[in-house]
Write a structure and sequence with these properties.
The complex is a heterodimer of chains A (241) and B (323). In chain A, β1 and β2 (14-24) form a beta hairpin. Among the domains of chain A are: 1-31 and 46-69 and 181-215, Rossmann fold, CATH 3.40.50; 80-152, no CATH class. By secondary structure, chain A is an alpha/beta fold. A six-stranded mixed β-sheet of chain A has the order 6-7-8-3-9-10, sandwiched between helices. Chain A contains nine helices and ten strands. Chain B has 323 residues and is mostly helical. Chain B has a domain at 22-239. Chain B has 16 helices and two strands. Chain B has a two-stranded antiparallel ribbon. Classes of the chains: A alpha/beta (241), B mainly alpha (323).
Chain lengths: 241, 323
């Protein structure tokens, strides 16, 4: 469904992402891990259209989407959330989600109904009237997901939606992601919380200094020498074992 | 009260009051004040489309006002054409200029955008004041009064209803931008452009569209104003003062609300008219004091009612509902 072919992004002398190739199939739940500055978010920016790759191609459902603007990519059914959440702060939760729904729906009334449905799924119903700005971070992360879902994506990129959450919130969002995946949504997830990633992802790709150093099932990844050296560390492997 | 009526109760009161003015008074000075309140209100509502709904704060909207004013004045004096035709030409030019400004808004953000719009209006000011052969330069153009609808030579009462019709139209535009699909998408663009893009909104096109529409609406009123006042002076119609006035009325009334710009205009225009009259004449020694009072009012509004007069109204309504 999504295919990256040798994608590279440079900022001046720094190569943030170097010749990364990746494939996501329908129904996949792919995790991307790596230390800070490994190029994970830059990769998301390229897939979703915010950055144009310097080299390589991005194919979505067989179509070359390299260099398309984000809104066009979203309309094709691929959207993302932001690591640093970007709610429409002065609007209510309902209006936030409704604006997402309006991408597929012509009429405000239909979009409002669709927003209610998505808000319900994401467990935001008690907060539908609240201003987005006033929500605690856990709910703002959920709102970020809800708004993206309202555009009816088939592939959703989640950029650290679990960071900064307490254990209860974390369990809630993992449950939500599981449910969305079970309903047929394909996902790519950037996350630092390894325990969550091990349980969620079917496959994991590891980025380090902008390069993909490994890809495989969570079990394979934890055994990979380069991944242990670059990211996980010996303690993690011992703890897991 | 049915909800639709309740939603527009404020507008009904404001525009209804304006409509009955000629039935109550035929005093030309009073009628003149009302026409100006309405015209400034409509102009602020036009500014609100870009500055309020789309969040693209321009301090150069006098550009479009001046284009509209000059287009009609020149149509009449140079080509002996109807000011209505001049209005159309003005709107066309302003649309084009709006597209240029809109393009700038995709390159420049916030204060940089505002500065660029100021610069744009000043370029037009220089062009209009130097191109003597065509625009009569800094002498300005007196617009001859030729009675009739087609030549826009109207009496005060007719002008009042003309201005009122424009206000209703612009209010309707505002209501549309509050409740429609495009309006919600524009709100998304205003709140966070990156997020709006991710949700499938063509943010650039939407912003440019809003700015161009705002420019066209401003231009129309520029024409009407010039025909009403009867004189076009480059240093007035392209002035930063004027651009600031459009923004100020809207901010004081309530940015991004349909009625706000009109409320702002009622407060500011009548305050100004009153203060000017009250402290007029070199002998009073307070000739410029209206500017100080004007400034104080602005400070008070920004300090105590940052959401403008409509914000105060909403707060009061909330309090009543609870009581």
């Amino acid at each position: 469904m999504l295919k990256l072919e040798g994608v590279t992004k440079r900022f001046g002398g720094l190569t943030a992402v170097r010749e990364v190739s990746l494939e996501v199939r329908e129904g996949d739940l792919l995790g991307i891990i790596g230390p800070n500055g490994a190029g994970k978010t830059t990769l998301f920016h390229m897939i979703s259209g915010y950055y144009r790759p310097d080299e390589g191609r991005i194919l979505y459902e067989g179509r070359d989407v390299t260099g398309l603007p984000p809104h066009a990519i979203c309309r094709l059914g691929l959207t993302r959330t932001f690591q640093i959440v970007k709610p429409f702060g002065n609007l209510s939760v309902r209006d936030n989600v409704m604006i997402g729904a309006l991408t597929r729906l012509r009429h405000v009334r239909e979009a409002r109904r669709e927003a209610e449905r998505v808000i319900e799924i994401c467990g935001l119903s008690p907060h539908a009237e609240a201003r987005a700005k006033g929500l605690p971070i856990g709910l703002r992360k959920r709102l970020e997901v809800a708004r993206a879902l309202a555009t009816k994506p088939r592939l959703l990129l989640l950029d650290e939606v679990m960071a900064g959450l307490n254990p209860t919130e974390l369990a809630g969002i993992i449950e939500l992601i599981r449910r969305l995946h079970a309903d047929g949504l394909s996902l790519i997830i950037i996350e630092h919380i390894m325990a969550a990633m091990m349980r969620l992802a079917q496959r994991i790709a590891v980025l380090h200094h902008g390069e993909k150093i490994a890809e495989g099932t969570p079990a394979e990844i934890t055994r990979d020498r380069r991944v242990i050296d670059a990211y996980l560390g010996e303690e993690f492997v011992l703890a897991e074992a | 009260m049915p909800p639709a009526l309740r939603r527009h109760a404020g507008a009904l009161a404001v525009f209804g009051a304006a409509a009955v003015v000629p039935l109550v008074s035929r005093d030309n000075y009073f009628l003149d004040s009302v026409v100006l309140i309405l015209l400034w209100g409509a102009l602020s509502a036009a500014w609100n489309v870009a500055g309020g709904y789309a969040g693209q704060v321009s301090i150069g909207h006098a550009s479009f006002f001046g284009i509209g004013a000059y287009a009609a004045a020149l149509a009449g004096t140079r080509f002996n054409a109807s000011p209505w035709l001049g209005m159309l030409v003005g709107v066309a030019i302003s649309l084009a200029a709006g597209l240029v400004i809109g393009y700038l808004s995709n390159r420049l953000k916030g204060p940089y955008f505002a500065l660029a719009t100021i610069a744009f209006s000043q370029v037009l000011l220089i062009a209009a004041s130097r191109w003597r052969g065509f625009t009569s330069g800094s002498e300005g153009i007196p617009v001859p009064f030729r009675p009739g609808f087609w030549t826009l030579g109207l009496g005060h009462v007719a002008w009042l209803y003309m201005a009122l019709a424009v206000c209703l139209l612009y209010y309707a535009v505002g209501v549309y931008l509050e409740r429609s699909r495009v309006g919600y998408q524009l709100a998304g663009v205003r709140e966070d452009e990156d997020a709006a893009e991710a949700l499938g909104i063509a943010t650039r096109r939407l912003k440019v569209g809003a700015i161009a529409l705002s420019a066209a609406l401003t231009s129309m009123c520029g024409t009407l104003w010039a025909q009403y006042v009867g004189f076009v002076d480059a240093f007035y119609v392209f002035s930063v003062d004027l651009s600031v006035r459009f923004a100020l009325n809207t901010i004081i009334g309530g940015t991004g609300t349909a009625l706000g710009p009109f409320l702002g205009s009622i407060l500011i225009t009548s305050l100004e008219t009153y203060l000017r009259a009250a402290f007029a004449g070199a002998t009073s020694g307070y000739t410029g004091i209206y500017l100080i009072i004007y400034g104080v009012v602005l400070i008070l509004v920004v300090r105590f009612a940052p959401e403008g007069l409509t914000g105060i109204a909403a707060r009061l309504r909330g309090r009543w509902a609870r009581a």
